[in-house]
Amino acid sequence: MKKNKINLNKRRFIKTLGISFLSFPFLKGVRANYRPKVVIIGGGFGGGSCLSYLQKFSNQLDIFLVEKNKYYYTCPYSNSVVGGFRSLKDNKFSLNNLKYNDVKLIYNEVKFIDSEKKIIKFSNDEFLNYDWLVISPGIDFKWDDIEGYNIETNKNLPHGWDGADAKIILDKVNSLEDNSTILLSAPDYPYRCPPAPYERASLIAYNLKKRGMRFKIIILDSKDSFTKKKLFFKAWNELYPDSFEWISRSQGGKVIKLDYKNKSLITETGQKFKGEFINIIPNQKKKNLFLNDNDNDWLEVNPSTFELRNHKSVHAVGDCINAGDMPKSAFSANSQAKVCAENLKNIILDKEILNPVFFNTCYSFAAPNYVFSISSWYKVNKFDDKIVSLGTSESNINDNKLQRNIEVEHSKGWYQTITKEVFG
Amino acid sequence: MINLLTIPLFLCLLFFQKPVLSNSKDEINIKMIVNNCASCHLENNHSELIPSFFEKEREVFIKQMIDFQKINDDSIMHRITKVLNLDDIRALADYYYEKK
Ligand SMILES: Cc1cc2nc3c(=O)[nH]c(=O)nc-3n(C[C@H](O)[C@H](O)[C@H](O)COP(=O)(O)OP(=O)(O)OC[C@H]3O[C@@H](n4cnc5c(N)ncnc54)[C@H](O)[C@@H]3O)c2cc1C
Fold this sequence. Notes:
The complex is a heterodimer of chains A (424) and B (100). Chain A is of the alpha/beta class and 424 residues long. Chain A is globular, with a radius of gyration of 22 Å. Chain A is 25% helix and 25% strand. The longest helix of chain B has 14 residues, at 86-99. Chain B is globular, with a radius of gyration of 17 Å. The A-B interface holds A 53, 331, 334-335, 338-339, 342, 354-359, 361, 373, 375, 377, 379, 390-391, 393-396, 399, 403, 407, 409-410, 412-418, 420-421 and B 19-22, 27-29, 31-33, 35-36, 38-42, 45-50, 73-76, 79-80, 83. The complex binds flavin-adenine dinucleotide.
């Protein structure tokens, strides 16, 4: 990130003080009626869940949430939009003012955080200070990994890894003709929602099959395996026989170049694949918001409190962190945010830090009535202070149609609950 | 002297030990488990597609959790309950029953 210098513009700083009504530096024990100021950056699954849990202590804390967008489009269920059986507006949410009437919602884009001065600077040059900060700004993309693929080409070939672009991808899929070839480039670990590239491929297939098209989907993978592989393979054989080809990294699946003009992808082994529709899901890294930070791909946290290892009083949850064995998912972000909120409150109120446990489930659709899942509990390994899985387990490979349909209900139930919890 | 057989036996036990969420009653505060259950089983506003835990009788809740553990069908509730011990299940039942 560019190293910006803070220009303490007095007028703007005072204006921000105005927004934040009580913004004196936190002096523990000095003023009995002082309310510590906690700011959360990011109103998505991690930040929103943290807000929802910290809100229970709004009588003791001044709580602020900073979000750059008024509306949030969920990534979960965005592939159903691509599949043509869900409307994008069903994935659109905003933080409900009624639910959050005792916290302050600020719609502004954070330019950078100066964790030494405990100041957040916004793109419009306003400032906000904090006593404690929680960040969950999501992910950024590694634009240099595939030659010919960058922010510019992404405008015409959107990755759709942020929820809002699902409709653009749907329109492209809808415009395909009979006998089209679809190329999907799957990223290397770690990335947001490990099963989602394969769910996307499944639901593109569903869309095309429903419209009576013949098609071929070629998944060019930067990995040698992927989560729920057996379950996906079984679903593809049952629902879309002879339509899928998966090329692993060691078979030459890693894409290194996009030839945009010729609608082709070139892989590490020099093979060239041509397709009528190309969906590249790029490699990923943290979204960097700090004035001074290292070049690590992900933020390192203490897994019991989620305080950053290299920024005091700043906590981080969600996709931006290295969460050990936990995958980057909305479910994980929600689970981490609850632990973070609980133990941050304990730090601020000088109480005992509780041992955390986490849980994650990722549901995947292969068709509207065909869902399977993977799940695990997690604990902190005391020896190396890392989050470790207690063992992942998946839906039974031999589940029948009814059981796959029951998982549809579970998935919808989870989505309804988490979106109500986060957005109100 | 250590019996030579005890080492592989110990390793076997370590390897085949069933993973559990809490090794002792006080290790994990029940609130931490409840918060994870709340991803689907919220106190208010939970989805109509998912049964509420807050309406169940204590004994019914305990029996259902134990049944989920026993029926090894890879269902989501089996996968969730299999790492809970009886103390966890009882503490969860108490928590939901008190909130009833
Ligand atoms: C196709 C797809 C399908 C998925 N399906 C599932 C699923 O079924 N289940 C599941 O559990 N997970 C799923 N996920 C993963 C899930 O969407 C993410 O893991 C989750 O959104 C992570 O939450 P987060 O809070 O880290 O980031 P986000 O939810 O992305 O939230 C980040 C927020 O920060 C805001 N922000 C960023 N920068 C700034 C800034 N500078 N200033 C102010 N605000 C800022 C953003 O506007 C955003 O609102 C899926 C992902 C994809 C791509």
